[in-house]
Amino acid sequence: WLRRHGWLPSVLFGSIVRLGFGAWDDSREIGHYVKFIGQFAAAIAVVYWGGLWVMHVPFLSTDVPMGIGKPFTVVAIVGTINAMNHSDGLDGLAGGESLLSLGCLAYLGYTAGGADLLIIAGAVIGGVFGFLRYNTHPARVFMGDSGSQFLGFSLAVLAVLLTQQVNPGLSMAIPA
Questions:
Q1: Closest CA to 140 of 91, 76, 83
Q2: Is the pLDDT of residue 35 over 70?
Q3: How far is CA 63 from CA 6, 58, 75, 169, 174, in A?
Q4: C-alpha span between 38 and 162 (Å, rounded)
Q5: Tell me, what's the pLDDT at 1?
Q6: How far apart are CA 42 and CA 78, in angstroms?
Q7: 89-121 CB burial, b ≥16 within 10 A, e <16
């Protein structure tokens, strides 16, 4: 089981790291350098420990070398985390865009036979649905960094999982 799902412990570890650093920032307002440490720690765990990285890019005739693909994936995950964190300013915006993106990832995972991706995306969708009930205008509950960064991390990891392992055809090169 672990051989087939070797990425799962690293994703759980990264999620816990993101949640911890986010909660720390929500309670004490840590600086952006400390936030980056937590973001890079979570991304590095998934990429280097879990082996989940971008190796296929559309329109390239060969696979991406490991020395380029792994650092690229780490930076892309951190970028997605920060993009979702910055969109958490309006009531329901980060949750709404996460819900749409997770729905698309779940559908594509379903059509590709990715039960693992579908289960994880479904669990996160359930959490976002429950949260959005109280986060639409006028908001009574706010997401904060712990929620927005977790959602960004989850979206990035699920996108890489979908395009690189569940259905590599989504990112395969067209034969020359």
A1: 91
A2: yes
A3: 21, 10, 18, 13, 12
A4: 24
A5: 47
A6: 9
A7: eebbebbbbbbebbeebbebbeebebebbbebb
